[in-house]
Amino acid sequence: MKRTGGPELRFKGETYNCEKLTMSIPRDTDGSLSSCLMFSKPRHPHLLNDSEVSSVVPCQNGWVYDKSDFKSTLATEWDLVCSRKGMNKATATIFFIGVMLGAPTFGYLSDRFGRRPLLLVSYLTTMTFAVLSALSTSYVMFGIMRFFTGMSTAGISIISIVLNLEWLGVEQRTLFGVLFSLDWTIGSCILVAAAYMVNEWRLLILAVTSPLILAVVAWRWLPESGRWLVANGKVDDAHYYINQCAEMNNRCMCMATITPRTLLESVDTNTNDNKYTFIDLFKTANLRKLAICTGIVWFGVAFTYYGITLNITGFGLNLHLTQFIFIAIEIPMKIALYFLIEYVGRRLSQSGTLLSTGLFLFINMFVTKDKWIIRTVVGVLGKAVSEASFTIIFFYTIELYPTVIRQNGLGYTSFVARLAVALSPLIMLFEDVWPLLPPMIYCGMAVVSGLVALLLPETQDTRMPEFIEDLDKPREKLTKGKVI
User: Fold this and answer.
1) Residue 222 phi/psi, 5° resolution?
2) For 314, which of 41, 373, 391, 427 is 20 to 30 Å away at the CA?
3) Hey, is 11 helix, strand or coil?
4) Torsion sign across C-alpha atoms 134, 139, 143, 144
5) Which residues contact 370 (CB under 8 A, 6 or more apart)?
6) pLDDT interval class at 185 (50, 70, 90)
7) Which of 168, 122, 115, 174 shows the shortest CA–CA distance to 408?
8) 11 pLDDT exceeds 90?
9) What is the DSSP code string of 135-203?
10) 8 strand-pairing partners
């Protein structure tokens, strides 16, 4: 039941005044009328102060919802309130479990069959399951469709950034990593605007999925990764795409001495036939250390980021405005982040942003909810540096893993991150145990992962490794302008 101000409230077509509500509905500890409980029998108005006691039971006649902000939501569609309110949190968890399983799946397949074809598969399956989600006739069907939507979405996020970065040289990698993250921010701003204008959940799903139609159309002009083609011995195709790239950048003279034969000679024939899997990430000492450290950092980054993002409440502002502020602050932060990464490098930037996230979470623990301006400012800054840590870890991870197992590595770390995301919303349930426990957990995880990030090697201005054996060699420092 949604209580609103004023002396009267409508329930299922009937009008109740305050006196009748008091006879029918108990009060919560804060003095407000309960939204989930009712008296089994209305108490007589003349016996309110008497010894008569009516048993309290869950609401028996359903709920009437306030639709001033949202015309239709999952909660109003299937009454996910009171004893069923945990199912709202479970919806996000189900989606991210799908992402968690989809990341290693698409990581393996794209290392095995190529980046480009698996990207198209991700586009098409995401659209299909998103539309089926919007057409769901039950909560169970919706949960299943969201699971498969999450699996498909994972492929888009990990394949698209790898495909782009594998075509870039040392000079462009940092700039592209920041620009890629700015795309995420701008898309999130558009998502808030769409949610404000489209306040019916089925239409909103269709609206935010529609840009994938343009992505499918643009896919036909995307080249396959030249690095992947060379590493897998497909030198003729690699030479074709490299020639196209040279023509586009007016660098045709550089191709005079590059032939399919020279590309073939650059490939280690003892390794290029291997079909790497997730298990190979733990076979050698250097790769095992890399996998463990990046896994912990990714867990911390995702756990704190979504812990902040999915629980933006209590700041005294309209929900849409609060979300917009939290997202918009990322734009200047990411512009500043570019210069930070260029000046101090990946490793220290990754550690510093995570430790800063923990600091802001720690500060907000001691700011009371009535001081909403301070809470908003500290919360916005925490969200901004948390997003900065997410920006760095994406392209930092790509630079750390060898080409032959890069998608497997990114798939594995994304799996760990989505495990964190699946758990993150559920941490808020500990509020019932102790209100400070959830922020303490988020803060602690940010600090631990920030310290672990210091164990990773620096990759700024270095050649990206091609094979697993390259991890045993010192990273070659390159001058900017040199293609790698």
Assistant:
1) -80, 135
2) 391
3) strand
4) negative
5) none
6) confident
7) 115
8) no
9) T-SSHHHHHHHHHHHHHHHHHHHHHHHHHHHTT--HHHHHHHHHHHHHHHHHHHHHHHHHHHH--BHHH
10) 17
Task: List the one residue out of 471, 158, 458 whose CA is nearest residue 298.
Answer: 158
Q: Where are the domains of the chain?
A: 8-64, 75-232+272-421+429-472
Report the pLDDT value the prediction gives residue 355, as an integer from 0 to 100: 95
What is the identity of the amino acid at 193? Answer: A
Q: 426: which 2 tokens?
A: 């559920």
Pairing type for strands 37-39 and 14-17 reads unpaired
Dihedral of CA atoms 329, 331, 332, 335 in degrees, nearest 10, equals 150
Q: How far apart are CA 2 and CA 76, in angstroms?
A: 11
Q: Cα separation of 360 and 378, whole Å?
A: 6
For helices 115-134 and 86-113, the axis angle rounded to 10 degrees is: 160
The SS3 of residue 102 is helix
Looking at per-residue pLDDT, the higher value among 448 and 374 belongs to 448
> Residue 236: which pLDDT band, with cuts at 50, 70 and 90?
confident
Instruction: Give the pLDDT mean for 248-255.
Output: 73
Level-2 CATH architecture, domain 75-232+272-421+429-472 = Up-down Bundle (1.20)
pLDDT tens-digit readout, 212-223 = 999 999 999 888
Q: What is the dihedral of CA 411, 395, 424, 416, to 10 degrees?
A: 30
- 382: pLDDT confidence band, cut at 50, 70 and 90? confident
pLDDT in tens, 109-164: 988 888 999 999 999 999 999 999 989 888 889 889 999 999 999 889 889 888 88
Q: What is the full DSSP assignment across 398-446?
A: HHHS-GGGHHHHHHHHHHHHHHHHHHHHHHGGGGGT-TTHHHHHHHHHH
d(CA 386, CA 353): 7
pLDDT for res 266: 62
Closest CA to 133 of 149, 112, 121, 116: 149
CA gap 236, 243 in Å, rounded: 11
174 vs 179: CA distance, rounded Å: 9
* Torsion 49-55-56-58 (CA) sign: negative
Nearest to 444 by CA among 358, 353, 350: 358
